[in-house]
Amino acid sequence: MRVLAAMSGGVDSAVAAARARDAGHDVTGVHLALARNPQTFRTGARGCCTLEDSRDARRAADMIGIPFYVWDMAEEFHDSVVDDFVNEYAAGRTPNPCLRCNEKIKFTAVLDRAVALGFDAVVTGHHARLGADGLLRRSVDLPKDQSYVLAVLTRAQLDRAIFPLGDSTKEQVRAEAAERGLAVADKPDSHDICFISDGDTRGFLESRLGSAPGDIVDGRTGERLGTHNGAYGFTIGQRKGLDLRVPAADGRPRYVLSITPVSNTVTVGPREDLAVDVVTADRPIWHAASDATDCEVQLRAHGEVVGASVSVTGETLVATLKSPARGVAAGQAIVAYRPDPGGDIVLGSATITAGVRAESHA
Fold it and tell me: Largest alpha-carbon pair distance within the chain?
């Protein structure tokens, strides 16, 4: 099979490409140039998007013995990921740019181009598994599992995807890279958001959306507790950085409960007021045989997993949680899993629109 290996410059994608070649595939490596100005992206051994990452990917391809190319996808990335990130925060939601990159870039723009060029599939270094049944499963290395950010993929996209690392731990991948003589064996993992060079998300958003002063109010009393420079700088469940000028009467910390862009208001309250047990979401990608099922759901990348009853009707998914969850933010993904001896199976995903108490949803 003729396959395209997406090589970020990190250890995972390098080993994935090597394993694909060892499996007998005709492999070509490609590095995605995603920055309009590469110097504005992170520097250092981050494993994503910088000029040195491109060089690391090329060296790995040479060592593996496969052809290598760089594809300039900066415009697609900016339009589909960076602009989406800014627009979602401006609308009071909390996006996941890695999920959007997988959905719009690696498994849409890249896959479409690969198929047009005669490739049969795309290989990536994601820690996830595709079973013989074609279903997406969690990696054996649960702390490194990336099935959550891959759950947006359609059946057609999964049919043209290969994830060679799902049955290995990260330690095993690094050891294999060292045995193969790959220079990226000890390269640190990428962290944070690749297109925010200094890691200052609030500063990045302010540079694009401008300062927009507004009020921080108490969710129970409506009292004005402080001010902010932009509601886009907050996310549901946030505790730090509120800079409240009025202390809580009970002395307990407050958390962000909601964000209202129309009035530019951030509402805060005690931790218990974050609890929700009904989550609604739109744009479901659903692989389960039935539109209603008991399962487990994950509400953030690396977030808690809770039992739930999920139903899908048209473009709406509703999950009734068996125990309350906190910090449920619109814009994040809800991913449904079914426990399985061969690894938790992804049943589907959707984009969260709201989390509410059951009584308010009735």
Answer: 67
The 10s digit of each residue's pLDDT in 185-206 is: 999 887 678 888 778 899 999 9
Q: At what angle do helices 83-90 and 201-209 cross, to 10 degrees?
A: 80
Which residues are within 8 A (CB) of 229 and not within 5 positions of it... i.e. 6 or more apart? Answer: 206, 211, 212, 213
Nearest to 304 by CA among 257, 269, 337, 331: 337
Evaluate if pTM is beyond 0.85.
Answer: yes
Identify the three-state secondary structure at position 283.
Answer: strand
Q: Cβ of 324: how many Cβ atoms within 10 Å?
A: 16
Tell me the sheet residues that pair with 129. Answer: 137
Number of helices followed by number of strands (H, E) in the chain? 11, 17
Q: What angle do CA 146, 149, 151 make, to 5 degrees?
A: 105
**Angle at 59 (CA atoms; ends 32, 56), nearest 5 degrees:** 55
Quote the CA–CA distance of 52 and 150 in Å, as a whole number: 26
CB 336 within 8 A of CB 288: yes
* Catalytic residue set: 101, 194
Task: Give the pLDDT confidence of 156-192 residue by residue, as tens digits.
Answer: 999 999 999 999 999 999 999 999 999 999 998 876 7
- Count of CB atoms within 10 A of residue 117's CB? 10
The DSSP letter of residue 199 is S
